[in-house]
Amino acid sequence: MSRDLKIHKSIKRSIVRRLEYEEFQISDGLSGNCSKKAERIFLTPYNVTQVTLLNTGTPNPIGRVNGVSIDKSDLDVCKKMTRAAVDAEDSFNTEITKSGGPKTILGREFQNGKICNKVLKLTGSVLCLQMEVQLGVATTARRKKIAEQITNLQENILIDKAASGQKQRSVQV
Prior knowledge:
Blueprint lengths: L20 H4 L4 E2 L3 H10 L6 H5 L17 H27 L6 H31 L4 H23 L4 E2 L5
Antiparallel strand pairs: 1-2
Helix pairs in contact: 2-5, 4-5, 5-6
């Protein structure tokens, strides 16, 4: 009598579960702490901090995390979530304009939310670029982009901190 054996392949899933923008946006509340909020979304699952991310003059690829290697599924999730944050920027611009610009109370709240969203998207972007390096799929141009994105991230973190304590508002995408 033969037995049918079922072979279960171990399928590695990304470390971070893919979320819709509304599930991971960080632009509500008060300004000044967006770096930490973005860190919790994109970096903490990989045991990386904003300090580590910002202090990489050269690519500092992400390696094994809790014994699980980064793979294409991690990169795909990172790219999709980062793209959602990039796409949300148009909605922020629309709301800032509709509310009378960044000098109005409501416009300033949307502007602060936009800066927080930029911190989120740039954190994701730098992480994705470093994953590309780790996976060996980064082109020379993509490797060079890491330094540019880190500079943009640092600038937006400073803008967020300068607005510390001010209200910020998210958008519907």
